[in-house]
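Section 4.2 – Deliverable D4.2 (structural model, holo form)

The reporting period included a commitment to supply a predicted holo structure for the target in complex with IPE. Inputs used:
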Amino acid sequence: MSYKEQIDLNRIPCHVAIIMDGNGRWAKQRGRERSYGHQVGAETVHIIAEEAAKLGVEYLTLYTFSTENWGRPAEEVTALMGLLFESIEEETFMKNNIRFRVIGDTDKLPDYVRGRLNACIAHTADNTGMNLVLALSYSSRWEITEAAKKMAMAVQSGDLNPEEIDSEVFSGYLATNFMPDPDLLIRTGGELRLSNYLLWQCAYSELYFCDTYWPDFREEAFFKAISVFQKRERRFGKTSEQIS
Ligand code: IPE
Ligand code: IPE
Ligand code: MG
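Output (structure tokens):
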């Protein structure tokens, strides 16, 4: 039985987050430049986004460029920005009823990229299907620090009572405040770490790591991750008996 056939369509994770890793190593293995890996990785993004939308995933959050990735060689950063600009395909989003969104410190992005992103966000704003969220110039510590700053300002201006701050209020100040926490976090490329991604939000997410490099992570690999997720028991601190 294929992995797709094993998927229970009534129990699709609402929010899937992915750390898309391994583009550079994939290219190196083929004797090519790292940028070639990013190019093929961008094709994977479209394939996985389309499959996730078809399955009924409501939020797909893709770690596309981290705060720390600004520290890569300038030519790689420039190539990634150019690729980002070229890869925003509004037609695919419109065809699949996908709403496009971005989280991260987008002020740091080049103007031409930000303009393209904002146009696509506006154009797809009324789509009612899956939310495709790119984490760009994003890191959890940036996000949490920003939230703390905003809360401090709200307290200072009298709009927020410090006594009222609980985890729900805190979540409301994060860039992800429009979506539920990830049910499933996938990391491709073999590394077993979170690399500053959705640290607060993944408190109870199911983690799935695989060795496949992102450019090779196609339909069946994605279906496998979903099917493995569906076999897990999520207890949220309770006992197995309480769950069943
Ligand atoms: C992930 O692939 C893409 C980005 C971080 C932008 P990498 O570029 O990290 O590829 P590896 O991990 O070096 O193989
Ligand atoms: C994480 O990948 C960031 C993205 C996938 C955008 P990295 O390749 O930057 O992570 P580290 O540096 O190996 O932890
Ligand atoms: Mg990497």
